[in-house]
Design a protein that fits this description.
The protein is mostly beta strands. It is 0% helix and 52% strand. It is built from no helices and 11 strands. Strands 2, 4, 5, 6, 9, 10 and 11 form a 7-stranded mixed sheet that branches. Strands 1-3-8-7 form a 4-stranded antiparallel sheet, with no helix packed on it. The N and C termini lie far apart (40 Å).
Length: 128
């Protein structure tokens, strides 16, 4: 019943920008943690950014801090990942995920094991 659909990926030159969207059906983001993860070939899935909609607290990985920004539009039940100053090492499949339990204010959800529902992923490719 719960579905998460990512969109907005594509091919972009280094230094360019993309905005990824994660639209949910079957649940509302209002009280849950939503995370963005990425996985490059041969590498483990890593947390990129997350948000707890209870208080809007966010986490951003050091590797993308200052370049990526996560936002949530609860009215549209959509979470975004604005990616600026993209680098070739950002190339990966990007996934959004959400918890099945309410998130706690002030706690950053950074582990994939904390999430229950996942989207299909969207490919981001950054060329030099």
């Amino acid at each position: 019943e719960v579905q998460l659909v990512e969109s907005g990926g594509g091919l972009v030159q280094a230094g360019g920008s993309l905005r990824l969207s994660c639209a949910a059906s079957g649940l509302f983001f209002d009280d849950f943690a939503i995370g963005w993860f990425r996985q490059a070939p041969g590498k483990e899935r890593e947390g990129v950014s997350s948000i707890c909609s209870v208080d809007g607290s966010t986490y951003t990985a050091d590797s993308v801090k200052g370049r990526f920004t996560i936002t949530s539009d609860n009215a549209k039940n959509t979470v975004y990942l604005q990616m600026n100053s993209l680098k070739p090492e950002d190339t990966a499949v990007y996934y959004c995920a959400t918890t099945a339990t309410y998130c706690s204010a002030g706690y950053y959800y950074t582990s994939p094991y904390e999430y229950d529902y996942w989207g299909q992923g969207t490919q981001v490719t950054v060329s030099s």
